[in-house]
């Protein structure tokens, strides 16, 4: 499925957060949304997931306007994983993952739902944690459990807000390799909000770079992650060089005070 954000605007009160941002993500593609803190990345993702209603513009899925879709149909098509929270309900990991099957069941969960949940936990290396309660897990383990819940939903479109922020490097790679396989193997449309630029370049087919609520650039990692763009948007001098596993971004020094680079009050 293709998802399109067309000239999306959003504000928190009087504060403009997104200013006519347009992005398009095709079936089987991974789009990485990057930008400084406060540039509007998470807000854009929530608008694309129907969690926030844009003040202007619209979001479309295969040409259908998102608000026109029934809630259940939307839940079948879009999986959303927010940034992790420190508080968790008293559920086991398996309970949480099975919640991802809710849009697909009319009465009770069946053997197929359990099999799908078990398969996702296996692919993420979490089978041994299935019976553990969420509040017994580390932050990284809880984050992987929420990703597993979204994957068990079998959505055509998967939206992930900083999915690796609480993970160590091994688990970051496990999650991102799995996400990329989901795009390649299953034809899922993936949108990731990312901070680590080299990792974003490695695992994204295209990048959308936001700055102060506006789309600064969109395209392949090579087109977007230029040394000039890093100066203009992040306010840093950096080297960008090709590597064996994709672009490598090496920050060197700030060019001015961080407050000047962030700009605005977007989220």
From TrEMBL:
The keyword Transport applies. SUPFAM superfamilies: P-loop containing nucleoside triphosphate hydrolases. It comes from the Bacteria. InterPro entries: AAA+_ATPase, ABC_transporter-like_ATP-bd, P-loop_NTPase. Keywords: ATP-binding, Nucleotide-binding, Transport. PROSITE patterns: ABC_TRANSPORTER_2. It comes from Paenibacillus sabuli. GO terms for molecular function: ATP binding; ATP hydrolysis activity. This is ABC transporter ATP-binding protein. The keyword Translocase does not apply. It holds the Pfam family ABC_tran. Residues 3-237 form the ABC transporter domain.
